[in-house]
Amino acid sequence: xxxxxxxxxxxxxxxxxxxxxxxxxxxxxxxxxxxxxxxxx
Length: 41
Known about the structure:
The chain is mainly α. 73% of the residues lie in helices and 0% in strands.
């Protein structure tokens, strides 16, 4: 059950990334980097 949920979630994320729904995350990261506000994890 957990593995199936994980696979479904992964598929949804891949589809969202391909459709551009997650582009705002890249835009946010680029803006943060430009302002030197990123932190190493």
